[in-house]
Structure formats: structure tokens, C-alpha cells
């Protein structure tokens, strides 16, 4: 059916900002906003845009909410900018393996925190459109991760393992001493038993050597 055919083509275009859709940046630093797109049937005169706190496709001249717009003729050519905010730098490439349309926002300010949307429109797929959103947080300073609890847990676990090993060593030593003691007692018992038998045997032979009393 024609409707199903159009629906399948629409699903062929996908846009992604990576495994996580959150980015944290230090105030006055430069931050990368990643974005790639994939298409099963290729692209022709593809248009991509970046928007700040909106997902609407804006027309030229660009409004302040649109921070970058570019066009890609085909897979063999690199993107050409149509319009961009002076603080935005394009760092992607479409002639390599990934169709990378990432940008860098220079001199990040606290007012730059918010939602950034990467939007793609492919005329070759009957003007199919798709977008992905990434959220930027701007901080005064990066918070260092407190590993105190982790170190305590590691120390406790290590201590328990050490105690277990020590206990096993002590157990081995004790069992070795007990075994040696038991072996020594057995030797004494065997030696004592042998002496008694010898004496009894000698006494018996002397008694047998005596002549019977005369009547």
C-alpha cells in the first residue's frame, strides 16, 4: 500500500546524539554537541539545523533560536553552512564513515543551559524529517566524585579477605601441630607396647629353662 511505503521510508532516516542525551560544561569553556544521522537509501540536498529550546523548523532569515543550519548535496561532499551563530563552530563530516553533523558551542555561558535539538530533513526520502535532543547544563566548577565510601568498602572487603586468609593459615598450622602430636603419641604407644612384650617373653623363656623340681 502507498501509505505503508511512505511510512517505511520515513523510518529510514534516524538522528542520534549518542548514548546519553545530557552534557555538562564549565562556564566560559567550549562544549561539543554531538549529532549523527543515518539513512538507508542515501540523501540528496539534505538540510540539517540546530535549535535552542525549540524543535520547530524555522525559515530564513534565521531567528535567534536557530543557532546553525547547513546543507549537504550528497555523500561525496562536505556540508556547507547556510547560517550559523558566531559562537557556533561546525566540527562534523559526512564524507567519512559516520554522517557527523556535530557542533561546538564556544564560550559557554549560564544562559546557554537548556535543550538543543539536531534536526535533519532529507528530500530524497520524500522530505522525511527526524530530530534528536540533547540537554546542556552549565556549572561554575566541576564537582569531583567523592570516592570515600568506595575506599571504605574496598578497605573493609580487603580486611575481611585478609582475616580469612590468616584464619586459614592458623587453622593449617594448628592441624599440623595436632597431627604431629598424635603421631608422636602413637610412636610412644608402639614403643611401650613392644618393650612389655619383650620383657614378658624373656621372663617366660627363663621360666621355661628352669628344670622341674625334683620329687
UniProtKB/TrEMBL annotation:
Annotated localization:
Membrane
Q: Enumerate the PROSITE patterns for this protein.
A: IG_LIKE (PS50835)
- What segments bear the compositional bias annotation Polar residues? 190-200
Membrane topology, record value: Single-pass type I membrane protein
Checking SUPFAM superfamilies in the record gives: Immunoglobulin
Checking Pfam families in the record gives: V-set
Q: Which UniProt keywords apply?
A: Disulfide bond, Glycoprotein, Immunoglobulin domain, Membrane, Signal, Transmembrane, Transmembrane helix
Question: Can you tell me where the transmembrane regions are?
Answer: 149-170
Q: Which GO terms describe its cellular component?
A: voltage-gated sodium channel complex
InterPro entries for this protein = Ig-like_dom (IPR007110), Ig-like_dom_sf (IPR036179), Ig-like_fold (IPR013783), Ig_sub (IPR003599), Ig_V-set (IPR013106), Myelin_P0-rel (IPR000920)
- Specify whether Glycoprotein is a keyword of the entry: yes
Coiled-coil region list: none
- Domain Ig-like per the UniProt entry, residue ranges: 2-135
Q: Where is this region: Disordered?
A: 187-215
GO biological process entries: cardiac muscle cell action potential involved in contraction; regulation of ventricular cardiac muscle cell membrane repolarization
Gene Ontology molecular function terms on file: sodium channel regulator activity; transmembrane transporter binding
Please state the protein's primary subcellular location.
Answer: membrane
Q: Which PANTHER family match?
A: MYELIN P0 RELATED (PTHR13869), SODIUM CHANNEL SUBUNIT BETA-4 (PTHR13869:SF14)
This one is known as SCN4B protein
**Taxonomic source organism:** Zosterops hypoxanthus
Lineage, please?
Answer: Eukaryota, Metazoa, Chordata, Craniata, Vertebrata
